[in-house]
Amino acid sequence: MSQKKTDRPDQIIAEARHDRELREKTYRERALKLFPWICARCGREFTGKRVRELTVHHKDHNHDNNPPDGSNWELLCLYCHDNEHSRDQVAEWYGEVTPGGEQEPPSTHRPFAGLDALLKDKK
Questions:
Q1: Rounded (5°) CA angle 93-98-103
Q2: Structural domain for 49, as ranges
């Protein structure tokens, strides 16, 4: 308890400044300085406290790829960011058709096969 009460506010201010400097070095803070506060997908603008709803999306999905020019980032609102990642999950579930290849039919059952012959007999 060698600190005086008057030293405490100075220490708090110094720590707050240090924390702010560290935060500004993060990719989110850098992206917010580089780009307008607008969602790149839906076009919503963000100001004030609502800026917290604006997220940084890594275009190549690699969170370690943070070039200083921000070329791997885009600002997306929470909703568009969730949509972007869920689209990737859906694509993985359904798989890809290789170029030039044909996709297998999901089922071999043909419920209407032979229906034309049945209808001809009714006439």
A1: 70
A2: 9-96
Instruction: Report the sign of the C-alpha dihedral through residues 30, 35, 40, 46, in that order.
Output: positive
At 18-29, the pLDDT tens digits run 887 776 578 888
Q: What is the pLDDT of residues 69-115, one digit of tens each?
A: 999 999 999 999 999 888 767 766 666 655 666 666 666 777 788 88
Residue 77 is assigned to a structural domain of this protein: yes
Instruction: Find residue 73's DSSP bridge partners.
Output: 58
Secondary-structure breakdown of the chain: helix, strand, coil percentages, each rounded to the nearest 5: 45, 10, 45
Number of separate domains in the chain = 1
Partners of residue 76 on adjacent β-strands: 55
Read off the CATH number of the domain in which 88 is found: 3.40.1800
Q: Where are the alpha helices (DSSP H) in the chain?
A: 7-24, 27-34, 78-94, 115-122
